[in-house]
Amino acid sequence: MPVLEGECGGRVGPGRGDVGRGEPGLGQGPVDDEVEWVYQPVEVHFDDGTWALGRISGWWQDAGGLRWCRLRVARSGRPARWEPFDPARVVLLPVGGL
Q1: For each of the chain's 98 residues, which pLDDT tens digit applies?
Q2: CB 44 within 8 A of CB 56
Q3: Distances from the Cα of 80 to the Cαs of 7, 8, 67, 92, in angstroms?
Q4: Contact 52, 13 (CB under 8 A)
């Protein structure tokens, strides 16, 4: 499976994914009470044309209005982490029946 700097299509810094110690622009996640915790299946599209299933477990918007998602790509071996959300790269899938 390809590995990208940011599966949501944005910047990724060291330490991202830890909620409660700052904002993602500084390389860390938002404080817990600012997060909308969810279970959102997604399809992640990679630059080489391949894709993988994943899950967004949280949404957050920074002071500048940028929307961030806490994304984990299935079977990637990488933990969930905060990344800027890019709807062209991360397609939201239905949670319930069609």
Answers
A1: 343 345 555 544 433 444 443 345 554 568 889 999 999 999 999 999 999 999 999 999 999 999 999 999 999 999 999 999 999 999 999 988 77
A2: no
A3: 10, 11, 16, 16
A4: no
Rg (CA), the chain: 13
Outline where DSSP puts E strands in 46-89.
51-61, 67-73, 81-84
- C-alpha dist (Å) from residue 39 to 25, 34, 70, 88: 23, 16, 10, 20
Q: How many CB atoms lie within 10 A of CB 29?
A: 25
Give me 75's structure tokens.
């079977």
Structure tokens at 29: 């996640």
In the chain, the amino acid numbered 66 is L
DSSP state of 47: T
Alpha helices in 6-57 (DSSP H): none
